[in-house]
Amino acid sequence: MEHPEKPQLHMVWPTASRRLPIDPATAEGYAIRTYQPGDERVFLELMALMDFDPFDDQKLAYNVARIIPQGWFFAVELATMEVAGTAMCLHNYTGDTPFGGDVGWLACRPTHRGRGLGYALSAYVTNRFHEAGYTRIQLGTEYHRLPAIKTYLKLGYLPVMDRPEMDELWAEACRQIGWPFTPERWLPDFPPSPLAE
Predict the structure, then answer these.
(1) pTM of this prediction?
(2) Is 7 helix (H, G, I), strand (E, B) or coil?
(3) What pLDDT is attached to residue 125?
(4) Taking the C-alpha atoms of 74, 79, 81 and 84 in order, what is their torsion angle to the nearest 10 degrees?
(5) Could you tell me the residue ranges of all domains in the chain?
(6) Measured between alpha carbons, how far is 87 from 90 in angstroms, rounded to an integer?
(7) In 3-state terms, the chain is what percent helix, strand and coil (to 5)?
(8) In 66-181, at which residue ranges do the beta strands (DSSP E only) sit?
(9) What fold characterizes domain 9-191?
(10) What are phi and psi of 170, to 5 degrees?
(11) How far apart are the two ends of the chain, measured CA to CA in Å?
(12) Rounded CA gap, 126 and 106, in Å?
C-alpha cells in the first residue's frame, strides 16, 4: 500500500528511566534468539513483507556492519521453528551519534502479528543496548506504522518533537492508536551527544 511521503517520527529512550531491564513478556510458543548463519535470507524476506525500502546486498552489508555483538534478534515459533520477526541493535547508524544506538528494522511476519512479538523484540534490543553501556537509544519510524509506534510508546520511548509538523503527525498517530497526545511530556529536540557536553 502506498502512503504519502512525510517526515519520519523519531523517539528516544529516556536516560533517567529506571524501567531497565524491560521484561520482554515473550508470548507462549515463541522464543527470542540471536543471529545464526543463514538468517540473512529470512531477514530479507521479512523486509519485503513489511514493504520497507528495497534491501540489496549493499544495504544489507551496511546494516550488518553496524550491529553490535549479540545484537541481532529473531522471534521464532517453537512448533514450526519459523522465524516470525526480527529487530537489530545498530551502532551509530547515521554517523552522528558516536555513543548512540538505533532500534533497527523491527518486523513481524503478518501471520504472527498480535502476539506481542514486536514488544518482545524491541525490549531485547533496548536491554542489549543498556547492557552494552549505550547512553543514547533512539529510533525512527514511518507515521503509518501504527503497531510499531504503539509498541515503542508502551515500552517507554518518548517522541521527539523536533519539527513543526511533528505536532500534527503525532496527534494523528495517537488518535489512531488510542494513545494520549501529551507533547508537553515529550522531548522538544534530540538530547545532545555526550561529545558535546
Answers:
(1) 0.93
(2) coil
(3) 98
(4) -40
(5) 9-191
(6) 9
(7) 35, 25, 40
(8) 67-77, 82-91, 100-108, 136-141, 158-159
(9) Aminopeptidase (3.40.630)
(10) -70, -35
(11) 43
(12) 12
63 is written with which cell numbers? 546494516
Type of residue numbered 147: P
One-letter amino acid of 2: E
d(CA 49, CA 46): 5
Tell me which residue of 172, 163, 167, 171 sits closest to 190, measured CA to CA.
163
* Contact residues for 108 (Cβ-Cβ < 8 A; gap 6+): 46, 75, 84, 85, 117, 118, 121
Look at strands 82-91 and 100-108 and give their pairing.
antiparallel
pLDDT (tens, 9 = 90+) of the chain, 197 residues, equals: 677 889 999 999 987 677 789 999 999 999 999 999 999 999 999 999 887 878 888 999 999 999 999 999 999 999 999 999 999 999 988 887 788 999 999 999 999 999 999 999 999 999 999 999 998 999 999 999 999 999 999 999 999 999 999 999 999 999 999 999 999 999 998 877 655 44
Predicted pLDDT of residue 150 = 98
Report d(CA 23, CA 21) in Å as an integer. Answer: 6
**The residue to which cell 512448533 is assigned:** 79
Amino acid at 41: R
Neighbours of 132 (CB within 10 A): 14
